[in-house]
């Protein structure tokens, strides 16, 4: 697994803080409901913000002979402590407009108290508080390293909110939700750290003291028209303590958010004012922002941010496990100067290592001396005759992490002899800059006087093994080797299987292809485009077949391969035999119900799912394009196509035979001739579905790209991103 410094830091921090972050997040989710439940209590009074302190004091004084204090909390609930005319003491919430007693303050529930303790200190007192504070700081660093990773992934800070390509569920949502919850997470963590520092007295709040000199201060007999009480809104008050007695030297203590003021009880004159230090302001702000007190909206934001953190823990570890499967490159048996074949690999997340390693082993098994390394380690190779470069593309057409220096090194490192080379690019058609870095490497090698190409650049979509095998055949031919690939078997699946009865199986046609019809023995919901997963007894490895649905039956088109375990098994089936398999929904390759128009493009057995689609959804106008070898190849599917045309569920059928005439015609050629249909479908929010070989898909996409850029001024990536073009190729 290749790791950049930022990804390494992000991962290490996540592992180091996992336990604390997990506990703090779970308890944080619960505690986010506390301010929400407080706000739901019936103590909020309409338009309380219109009252000033003077009005409130008058209202309370009219109703009660003695008032001890009035408080306004973050929810803007007004509470007070008063003595009534009959000498009863009342403590609780009041209506500030009428001074009516509303009810006692409810006790905080035991559950919230327990959760708060767990959240603050894990019941470990000082040590616990320290670790929670540290966890908060580590989470802050995780958010920062995560942001750097997103910026690098999106190729720059300006593109941070640009569209993210959805290749993998965990990766996609990790990035999308990471961007959205970045600010709330930074606020939660920084305020958490601040509150911890405060608890440990690492930040101290030093308040100034009041000084009042009654000897030298002369007070007005009568209150002036304006004083601090009638210029201060009640909602600005935190606490107002009433004078202890009627003695002139007893005063009001008015605590506001930013200052504490002593006020003369008769004149309303300010006797002393102490502004709170910045620390107090920040402490109050931290508490409000960390807890969400007083704001349902912010509490919900905090709740969502905590739920997102839980998802990041899950998706982050899932991605790490997936990436760990992409082991490192193999250990070299030969030195760089002894080897005839040099393999250089560029990879960001290690996916390309599997094929590069299989190739390395294959070449060694062929008796050649081989040396494998990453592209950044490019150096002199005294005995090299062949260079093979495997590289992915990352960011927006950029080099993967272990290949960033290759092009510079290529220019500066002198080679003594001439070396033949071939470049294989791993990428994804979902990106505009498809295999761009491989293209740059190929171009740089072309310009180098010591390198001559023995094959054209090969681009490979989604690590397709079949395209890689096709490339390997060509390489074997030009180099004169017989390298074959032994790929690690994916994990054997042990899913609960469903049973299907064989309704019909055709004989093999000229292309060794047949059609199999299966019927589920129990009711199963599925549609054309879903996948049938089969796990043959010999190896238990999952094989996926794209299926068509007709009359509640499954239609699959299969090509029998000489050593194909599953295709041989399917071909051995007879009517009424029972097959164990699993139907997997494949929503990315189903024909949307409401689509007005659809173009279905396939070659060979890729027509399978379309055999169902062309016989259903009569409301959708469908145009089928199919490429096969000869007219006889078509006979297998003729009855399905005729039925679609007869019942008007298929509007047109366009066929290309590659072997029927002198000039080879492929499906992409007939697509290119029907630009009007393609343009109309792209313009009218229709869909284009492609099923078959990856090689065909690449050619068809090139043609579609030409049509979309010339007729609609949009690159094909736009339609792929917006799922107007759907592909299921192998
Ligand atoms: C963030 C990101 C950016 C990518 N950018 C491109 C790109 O610009 N062009 C491309 O063809 N493929 C792109 N890909 C696809 C990868 O090249 C492809 O998944 C490849 O198989 C990864 O192999 P690796 O793990 O060995 O790096 C990108 C993938 C990711 C996750």
From TrEMBL:
<dbReference type="Pfam" id="PF00175">
    <property type="entry name" value="NAD_binding_1"/>
</dbReference>
<dbReference type="Pfam" id="PF03929">
    <property type="entry name" value="PepSY_TM"/>
</dbReference>
<keyword id="KW-0285">Flavoprotein</keyword>
<protein>
    <submittedName>
        <fullName>PepSY domain-containing protein</fullName>
    </submittedName>
</protein>
<feature type="domain" description="Flavodoxin-like">
    <location>
        <begin position="341"/>
        <end position="476"/>
    </location>
</feature>
<dbReference type="InterPro" id="IPR005625">
    <property type="entry name" value="PepSY-ass_TM"/>
</dbReference>
<dbReference type="InterPro" id="IPR017938">
    <property type="entry name" value="Riboflavin_synthase-like_b-brl"/>
</dbReference>
<keyword id="KW-0472">Membrane</keyword>
<dbReference type="InterPro" id="IPR008254">
    <property type="entry name" value="Flavodoxin/NO_synth"/>
</dbReference>
<dbReference type="InterPro" id="IPR029039">
    <property type="entry name" value="Flavoprotein-like_sf"/>
</dbReference>
<feature type="domain" description="FAD-binding FR-type">
    <location>
        <begin position="495"/>
        <end position="592"/>
    </location>
</feature>
<dbReference type="InterPro" id="IPR017927">
    <property type="entry name" value="FAD-bd_FR_type"/>
</dbReference>
<dbReference type="InterPro" id="IPR001709">
    <property type="entry name" value="Flavoprot_Pyr_Nucl_cyt_Rdtase"/>
</dbReference>
<feature type="transmembrane region" description="Helical">
    <location>
        <begin position="296"/>
        <end position="317"/>
    </location>
</feature>
<feature type="transmembrane region" description="Helical">
    <location>
        <begin position="12"/>
        <end position="33"/>
    </location>
</feature>
<dbReference type="Pfam" id="PF00258">
    <property type="entry name" value="Flavodoxin_1"/>
</dbReference>
<dbReference type="InterPro" id="IPR001094">
    <property type="entry name" value="Flavdoxin-like"/>
</dbReference>
<feature type="transmembrane region" description="Helical">
    <location>
        <begin position="130"/>
        <end position="151"/>
    </location>
</feature>
<keyword id="KW-0812">Transmembrane</keyword>
<dbReference type="InterPro" id="IPR001433">
    <property type="entry name" value="OxRdtase_FAD/NAD-bd"/>
</dbReference>
<feature type="transmembrane region" description="Helical">
    <location>
        <begin position="172"/>
        <end position="197"/>
    </location>
</feature>
<keyword id="KW-1133">Transmembrane helix</keyword>
<dbReference type="InterPro" id="IPR039261">
    <property type="entry name" value="FNR_nucleotide-bd"/>
</dbReference>
């Amino acid at each position: 697994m290749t790791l950049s410094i930022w990804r390494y830091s992000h991962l290490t921090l996540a592992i180091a803080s996992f336990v604390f972050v997990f506990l703090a997040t779970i308890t944080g989710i619960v505690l986010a409901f506390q301010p929400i439940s407080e706000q739901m209590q019936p103590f909020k009074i309409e338009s309380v913000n219109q009252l000033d302190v003077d009005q409130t004091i008058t209202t309370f004084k009219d109703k009660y002979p003695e008032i001890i204090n009035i408080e306004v909390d973050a929810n803007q609930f007004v509470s007070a402590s008063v003595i009534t005319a009959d000498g009863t003491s009342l403590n609780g919430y009041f209506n500030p407009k009428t001074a009516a007693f509303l009810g006692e303050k409810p006790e905080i529930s035991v559950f919230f108290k327990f959760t708060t303790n767990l959240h603050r200190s894990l019941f470990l007192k000082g040590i616990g508080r320290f670790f929670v504070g540290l966890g908060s700081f580590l989470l802050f660093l995780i958010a920062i390293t995560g942001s750097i990773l997103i910026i690098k992934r999106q190729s720059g800070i300006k593109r941070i909110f640009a569209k993210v390509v959805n290749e993998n569920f965990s990766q996609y949502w990790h990035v999308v939700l990471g961007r959205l919850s970045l600010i709330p997470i930074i606020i939660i963590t920084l305020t958490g750290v601040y509150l911890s520092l405060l608890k440990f007295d690492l930040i101290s709040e030093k308040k100034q003291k009041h000084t009042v000199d009654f000897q030298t201060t002369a007070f007005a007999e009568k209150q002036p028209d304006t004083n601090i009480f009638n210029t201060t809104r009640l909602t600005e008050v935190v606490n107002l303590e009433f004078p202890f007695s009627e003695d002139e030297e007893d005063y009001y203590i008015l605590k506001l958010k930013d200052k504490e003021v002593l006020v003369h009880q008769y004149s309303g004159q300010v006797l002393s004012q102490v502004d709170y230090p910045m620390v107090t302001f920040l402490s109050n702000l931290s508490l409000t922002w960390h807890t969400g007190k007083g704001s349902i909206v912010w509490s919900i934001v905090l709740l969502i941010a905590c739920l997102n953190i839980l998802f990041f823990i899950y998706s982050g570890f899932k991605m790490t496990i997936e990436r760990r499967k992409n082991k490192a490159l193999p250990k070299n048996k030969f030195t760089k100067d002894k080897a005839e074949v040099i393999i250089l690999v560029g990879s960001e997340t290690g996916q390309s290592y599997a094929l590069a390693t299989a190739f390395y082993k294959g070449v060694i098994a062929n008796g050649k001396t081989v040396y494998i390394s990453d592209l950044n380690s490019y150096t002199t190779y005294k005995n090299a005759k062949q260079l093979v470069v495997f590289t992915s593309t990352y960011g927006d057409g950029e080099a993967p992490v272990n290949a960033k220096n290759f092009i510079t090194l290529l220019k500066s490192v002198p080679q003594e002899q001439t070396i033949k080379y071939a470049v294989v690019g791993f990428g994804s058609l979902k990106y505009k800059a498809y295999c761009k870095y491989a293209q740059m490497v190929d171009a740089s090698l072309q310009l180098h006087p010591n390198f001559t190409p023995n094959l054209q650049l090969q681009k490979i979509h989604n690590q397709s093994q079949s395209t890689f095998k096709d490339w390997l055949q060509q390489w074997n031919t030009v180099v004169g080797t017989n390298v074959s690939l032994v790929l690690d078997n994916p994990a054997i699946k042990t899913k609960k299987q469903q049973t299907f009865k064989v309704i019909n199986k055709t004989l093999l046609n000229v292309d060794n292809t047949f059609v199999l019809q299966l019927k589920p023995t129990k009711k199963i919901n599925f549609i054309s485009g879903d996948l049938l997963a089969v796990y043959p007894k010999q190896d238990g490895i999952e094989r996926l077949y794209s299926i068509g649905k007709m009359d509640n039956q499954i239609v699959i088109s299969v090509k029998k391969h000489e050593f194909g375990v599953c295709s041989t098994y399917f071909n051995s089936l007879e009517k009424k035999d029972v097959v164990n398999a699993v139907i997997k929904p494949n929503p990315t390759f189903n024909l949307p119900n409401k689509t007005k128009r659809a173009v279905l493009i396939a070659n060979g057995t890729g027509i399978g799912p379309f055999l169902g689609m062309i016989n259903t959804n009569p409301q959708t106008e469908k145009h089928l394009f199919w490429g096969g070898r000869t007219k006889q190849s078509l006979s297998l599917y003729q009855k399905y196509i005729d039925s679609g045309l007869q019942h008007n569920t298929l509007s047109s059928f366009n066929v290309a035979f590659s072997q029927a005439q002198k000039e080879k015609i492929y499906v992409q050629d007939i697509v290119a001739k029907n630009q009007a249909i393609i343009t109309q479908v792209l313009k009218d929010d229709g869909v284009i579905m492609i099923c078959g070989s990856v090689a065909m898909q690449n050619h068809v996409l090139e043609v579609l790209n030409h049509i979309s850029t010339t007729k609609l001024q949009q690159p094909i990536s736009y339609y792929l991103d917006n799922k107007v073009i759907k592909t299921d190729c192998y």
